[in-house]
């Protein structure tokens, strides 16, 4: 593969960001970008800096589906965000089912002994790692 992939966990207040290694085997957390999607603040300035730094071949966005697999308002918002990312940065965007990734991230942080106030700082970027890792694991050659 020899190209990085960015993973994004898009919420209304934050976007968790993760990156793959060059071989597309593992995902690591980068940061959490503050956003205010209701007021049009999408974090694109910082995201653009990260895209410039990591030069990803693709961006994977978490797609929040209902437990029955249906897509709702949040999935529609994620697809809209993905479309805007592709248009603004010229990078291909794909989607990965993100059901339960935030719950998984919280369990990992609790198991690691991370205090509640500190979990809030890390949960979105860890969810991005899980989204990206699930994508990488399901797209092995």
UniProtKB/TrEMBL annotation:
Residue intervals of the YqgF/RNase H-like domain: 3-105
| Recorded GO MF terms | hydrolase activity, acting on ester bonds; nuclease activity
Q: Name one GO cellular component term.
A: cytosol
List the keywords (alphabetical).
Answer: Cytoplasm, Hydrolase, Nuclease, Ribosome biogenesis
Principal place of residence: cytoplasm
Q: Which Gene3D superfamilies match?
A: YqgF/RNase H-like domain (3.30.420.140)
Enzyme Commission (EC) number: 3.1.-.-
Q: Which InterPro entries match?
A: RNaseH-like_sf (IPR012337), YqgF (IPR005227), YqgF/RNaseH-like_dom (IPR006641), YqgF/RNaseH-like_dom_sf (IPR037027)
Uppermost EC category: hydrolase
Pfam families registered for this protein in UniProt = RuvX
Q: Which GO terms describe its biological process?
A: rRNA 5'-end processing
Instruction: Give the UniProt subcellular location, in the record's own words.
Output: Cytoplasm
| Function of the molecule | Could be a nuclease involved in processing of the 5'-end of pre-16S rRNA.
Q: Tell me the protein family, please.
A: Belongs to the YqgF HJR family.
Supply the name of the protein: Putative pre-16S rRNA nuclease
Q: Which organism is it from?
A: Lactococcus hircilactis
Q: What is the lineage of its organism?
A: Bacteria, Bacillati, Bacillota, Bacilli, Lactobacillales
Gene from which the chain derives: ruvX
């Amino acid at each position: 593969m020899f190209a990085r992939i960015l993973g994004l966990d898009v919420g209304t207040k934050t976007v968790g960001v993760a990156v793959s290694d060059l071989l597309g085997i593992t995902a690591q957390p980068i940061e959490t970008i503050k956003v205010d999607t209701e007021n049009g603040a999408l974090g694109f300035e910082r995201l653009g800096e990260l895209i410039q730094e990591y030069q990803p071949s693709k961006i994977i966005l978490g797609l929040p589906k209902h437990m029955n697999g249906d897509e709702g308002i949040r999935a529609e918002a994620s697809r809209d965000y993905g479309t805007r990312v592709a248009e603004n940065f010229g990078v291909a965007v794909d989607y990965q089912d993100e059901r339960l990734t935030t719950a998984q991230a919280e369990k990992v942080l609790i198991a690691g002994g991370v205090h509640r106030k500190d979990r809030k700082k890390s949960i979105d970027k860890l969810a991005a790692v899980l989204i990206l890792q699930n994508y990488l694991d399901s797209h092995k050659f």
